[in-house]
DMSO/TMAO reductase YedYZ molybdopterin-dependent catalytic subunit
Amino acid sequence: MPVTRGFLGRRRGHEGRLPPGQYDTGAGWPVLTAEATPEVDTARWSLTVDGLVDQPTTWTWDEIHRLPGSSFLGDIHCVTAWSKFDVSFRGVSVDELLAAAGPRPEAAYVMAHSSTGYTTNLPLSDVVDGKAWVVWDYGGKPLPRQHGGPARLLVPHLYFWKSAKWVSRLELMAHDRPGFWEQNGYHDRGDPWLEQRYQGD
Ligand SMILES: Nc1nc2c(c(=O)[nH]1)N[C@H]1C(S)=C(S)[C@@H](COP(=O)(O)O)O[C@H]1N2
Ligand SMILES: [Mo]
């Protein structure tokens, strides 16, 4: 690893890192799941990028691990007001997946689908340029099942409901469509720094 957590921990205090209305959950990591936690076998796991792409692409567990890896170290923010500092995840950048699938020019939104049926919508611009990952490691260990293991979406600059656990499909779309929580009143974009919690915020 080119940098250690200790070095970053000393260099970066927590000041200025708590978005408005949030509190630091500390060492805890609350579990927030609308559906029953699925048992997903990596031997049968797959991730598909389809919709408005030139090359709809599906990766198996082994295939996605052969892509160049990418890590995130930073903070996550849940709309229920907890934030967690200095979490580390490893997986693959969504850029890597999109490079293979080739979004068409008219693609402007993404629907993230979980194998459970959970969905969440995102502007395409929020999952490109190193801002989003599909991750399977947390703190150097396999991502726990209740936190979305074997693999979840990670979009840390938006409220955490956008980070679909047990992600199985990224569907590129020309037009925005509300996902599960968005149909239930949550904001379409969900920027914690702008406090975009609910529709109309
Ligand atoms: N499939 C699925 N993904 C989900 C959710 C869910 O209910 N189902 N909840 C979202 C919400 S509201 C939050 S805050 C985070 C919670 O992730 P955690 O349980 O790992 O903390 O997952 C998001 N992704
Ligand atoms: Mo949440």
Summary: The mean pLDDT is 94. The first strand starts at residue 23 and ends at 24.
